[in-house]
Design a protein that fits this description.
Layout lengths: L10 E13 L12 E8 L9 E2 L2 E3 L6 H13 L6 E8 L9 E10 L12 E5 L10 H16 L15 H12 L5 H12 L1
Parallel strand pairs: 1-6
Antiparallel strand pairs: 1-2, 1-4, 2-3, 2-7, 5-6
């Protein structure tokens, strides 16, 4: 074993989920409050970073893989048993990402359709990604990484349909894409999206 590796150093592995959705404004309020990209956060009740907002997740069990773990924890903690899309986002392993013993995090991107309003506990709520509250640890970084992954994939995949419900209008789809991308999507670009889905 190389001399620089300390095998006695504690190392924990957690899984986290940046669960995103687009919240569409109601018809009378569309002009004043357009659709926005939101992330699900819960308020920490324990130190460190007590009271700050954090991504849902927790420790990886010895008998499960990372995707099984995050699906279980979302179902148990925030009643998100079914997501329209889940994919591994990345591994966050900076030695100082959390205080105390080292914790490596595997983060996931999850998408909830706009027409679904899952039941969440009182300490959990949706926050606009463009106006995040003070978050714990590196959870802001992970959230923005998830937003950027979603935006990148909207340009070359059909992932945006996971943000829509089973049935949707073209205008609704345009609103969803615009909110996720952060700018107004043109009719021409939307037509390219629809043609990709038809293939």
């Amino acid at each position: 074993m190389p001399s620089h590796i300390n095998s006695s150093s504690p190392l924990a592995h957690e899984v986290l989920a940046a669960v995103l959705r687009v919240r569409c404004a109601t018809a009378p309020a569309r002009s004043a409050s357009p659709a926005s990209l939101e992330v699900l956060l819960w308020r920490r009740a324990l130190d460190p970073h007590i009271g700050r907002w954090s991504l849902p997740g927790g420790r990886l069990r010895p008998d499960e893989d990372v995707e099984t773990s995050i699906r279980r924890q979302l179902a148990e903690k925030v009643d998100l048993g079914t997501l329209a899309h889940v994919e591994q986002l990345g591994v966050f392993s900076a030695p100082d990402r959390v205080p105390g013993p080292r914790v490596v995090a595997t983060a996931f991107l999850g998408l909830v359709p706009a027409d679904v309003d899952p039941v969440v506990p009182e300490d959990t709520t949706w926050h606009r990604v463009a106006d995040l509250p003070r978050t714990a640890f590196d959870h802001r970084e992970i959230t923005l990484h998830a937003r950027d992954r979603l935006r990148a994939k909207l340009s070359y995949t059909n992932l945006g349909f996971a943000l829509a419900g089973e049935e949707f209008t073209v205008s609704t789809l345009r609103e969803l894409y615009s909110a996720a991308l952060g700018y107004r999507v043109s009719a021409t670009n939307l037509q390219r999206v629809l043609s990709r889905r038809a293939r």
